[in-house]
């Protein structure tokens, strides 16, 4: 019997592996711990190299999933443990209760009346309502309720307004065991904890944000047709500094290069240049590390009046001095000077680390999954090393091919 391939992680690489495998005739079960597929890409404002919206790339893949009966998927699903051998794995999966069933038409009335807020998850980005949908590209496009934030039937406001019998506040979580022939691990990356870099005052300064937070701020502005404002006082920033290698290439934190951060900051600066021409950006870098088509981002940025590229390390962020904004102490390598300068916001281009998974996998010295694993276990894309979307998609396609080999 040919068992399905189980894919852990429904980001762009897990989705790619799933559709490639299924279109080649294989059975696939895709599991994703969040309540929707798409991973980090679905939360982007835009993505390089072409700076196109995340819908291009994701929507076509959602369509391929919808139309392929060989793919089944679970969201809100996390691996508890994996046992067995190549050709016959058993994977125990915990399924979170969504509290909203498939009758949901995503009309949004539940969120409109919901009085509770989810705790802010990423640093200081504001929390959603307890009844929420993750983003404009959520797939499946259905609301869910965060049980940790919901007041339950004592409130019941969502029950009153839902015309489709979709609210199930007493739904329970469950466990299932899936039998699989191969397991592809596509669990992606998580950001290094910015609070660990004490000299960048991430915890103390509301206007110091990570690049992931900044990406989501831009995405929310695009979605809601709003202006970008800074967290501390809601003012439109005039100057934004980007600090490269925040946590990466640093023996006290992550000794390796996180590969995508230079391209990410150039993308952010170019996006500001076209969408917010009143904002100046300055990128502080050790050296620009771009590969392939991403090199073009540097060429584009070099000619822009509102973008300054400064070769130099930001030593530290100083404690506030009155109304000056966020004060940086910078070493400018080219002019061989040190200076202090104030910015309205600072974006930390953070290092990336592998997302953990409950499986005994071989890792390298930095915790990334090695390509060579016990037979039948196939790690793919950015959980093996930091990489961009285009490399992740290629690696995931190769993993689909590996899973087809019997
Ligand atoms: C701020 C920022 C901006 C970026 N912008 C760009 C860009 O413009 N262009 C570009 O090419 N690259 C960009 N990148 C890199 C890009 O994010 C990665 O290339 C891409 O996300 C890799 O996709 P993935 O599917 O491997 O991982 P992810 O997107 O991280 O997806 C992994 C998925 O697995 C799920 N998962 C994790 N653990 C489990 C588990 N145990 N069980 C079930 N599911 C699990 C996660 O919830 C997630 O949905 C950016 C990176 C950062 C930090």
Walkthrough of the structure:
This protein is an alpha/beta fold and 406 residues long. The chain folds into two domains: 5-96 and 173-188 and 355-404, FAD/NAD(P)-binding domain (3-Layer(bba) Sandwich); 192-352, FAD/NAD(P)-binding domain (3-Layer(bba) Sandwich). Helix content is 21%, strand content 26%. The chain contains eight helices and 19 strands. The chain has helices spanning 12-23, 55-66, 109-113, 157-161, 211-224, 261-275, 295-302, 389-404, and strands at 5-8, 28-32, 71-75, 77-85, 88-95, 131-132, 144-145, 174-180, 182-185, 189-191, 208-210, 239-246, 280-285, 307-318, 326-332, 337-343, 345-350, 352-354, 377-379. The strands form five sheets. Strands 11-17-12-13-14-15-16 form a seven-stranded mixed β-sheet. A five-stranded parallel β-sheet has the order 3-2-1-9-19, covered by helices on one side. A three-stranded antiparallel β-sheet has the order 4-5-8, with no helix packed on it. Helix 1 links the parallel strand 1 and strand 2 (28-32). Helix 1 crosses helix 2, helix 1 packs parallel to helix 8 and helix 6 (261-275) crosses helix 7. The radius of gyration is 22 Å and the shape is globular. The termini are close together. The mean pLDDT is 94.
